[in-house]
Amino acid sequence: MAFTPGVRFYEPPRPTPPPFTPSARLIERRAQATKNQGGEDTDQPPPTPTPTPNPPPVQNIPASKPQPLQWRDSNYNSQIASIQRALQDYETGAQKRGDRYGIDYTTGLNKLGYRPGSDFTAMPNLLETPAEAPRARALMSAANAQGEQPLVQPVSGAFDIEGQYDPFSTAARGTRSTRDDFAARGTLRSSDFAKNFADFQNRLQEQLTSMETGRSRFAEDLATDIAQQRTSATEREQQAQRDAQMRAAINAASAGGFA
Predict the structure, then answer these.
(1) Burial (0-12, 13-18, 19+ Cβ within 10 Å), 7
(2) Whether pLDDT at 99 is above 90
(3) CA distance linking residue 215 with residue 102, whole number of Å
(4) What is the largest CA-CA distance in the chain?
(5) Residue from 36, 74, 11, 45 nearest 247 by CA
(6) Is the pLDDT of residue 226 over 70?
(7) How far is residue 173's CA from residue 166's CA, in Å, rounded to a whole number?
(8) CA 89, 134, 122 angle in degrees (round to 5)?
């Protein structure tokens, strides 16, 4: 047929090809190939990977410290035991001296005619006193001036001038003697009696103050001695330790062939 310009010829529509469907043979080949490769069907989505847990943090373990030399030898042990025994004997003797002084002081108060309070302690347990407490205190007045707590508390009470508890005390006998003397002269209510009796009471107070000063001095001196003995014992223990460490170092060097 000759081509005629301007004339369109009818063309029938082309049929749509059917969708591709793999044959049973092709499916079998794919399954066999997947089985031979040890994997899964490539048509399936890949499995979700299992997350790998984070490794535990690395702990910085410090290196073990070198062990100290074995310096606790028998010589050291005997030295320490001797030092501690001597200190204990001294402290026991010091406490006994303090207890005896407290008894004598209380007896002196009774003879003077002074009645202390029920909570009064003539001499405390100086072994419980910190070592630094009596460092520079000598008198109770000086301690109070420096704002420091004294080792012994001031006595508090009253004079038994009427002799209610002890009619033979200094206060009771002095009071009766003064009254009897002025009563015999008929001047018991005179100003002379008042002045004489006031002077007598002042003398009683002066004796009490002197006893208090002596008690404070004794406590301060004894506490200072105890502190010095403890310091000396500590220094001797430290020296014994250094000597033992030196012996251990020499023995270790000799065992290592460095002698």
Answers:
(1) exposed
(2) yes
(3) 8
(4) 188
(5) 74
(6) yes
(7) 10
(8) 75
Q: Is the pLDDT of residue 117 over 80?
A: yes
213 and 105 in contact (C-beta within 8 Å)?
A: no
Spatial neighbors of 31 by CB under 8 A, at least 6 apart, are: 41
- Predicted confidence at residue 60, as pLDDT, reads 52
Q: In a 3-state reduction of DSSP, which class is residue 217? A: helix
Amino acid identity of residue 35, one-letter, is: K
Tokens describing residue 232:
């000396």
Phi, psi torsion values for 165, nearest 5 degrees:
-95, -35
Rounded distance between C-alpha atoms, residue 208 and residue 257, angstroms: 74
Task: List Cβ neighbours of 236 (8 Å cut-off, separation of 6 or more).
Answer: 79, 83
CA 231/CA 100 separation, integer angstroms: 25
CB under 8 Å to 133, separation ≥6 — which residues? 151, 223, 227
Report yes or no: 113 and 204 within 8 Å, Cβ to Cβ. yes
What pLDDT is recorded for position 148? 59
Contacts with 165 (C-beta within 8 Å, 6 or more apart), sequence order:
115
Per-residue pLDDT at 242 = 92
Residue burial 130-162, b: 16+ Cβ < 10 Å; e: rest: eeebbeebeebeebeeeeeebbbeebeeebbbe
CB 207 within 8 A of CB 34: no
CA distance 33 to 65: 64
Report percent pLDDT > 70 for the chain: 63
**Is the full-model pTM beyond 0.70?**
no
Please state the φ and ψ torsions of residue 185, each to the nearest 5 degrees: -95, -5
Q: In the chain, which residue ranges form alpha helices assigned H by DSSP?
A: 24-36, 74-112, 140-145, 170-184, 191-255
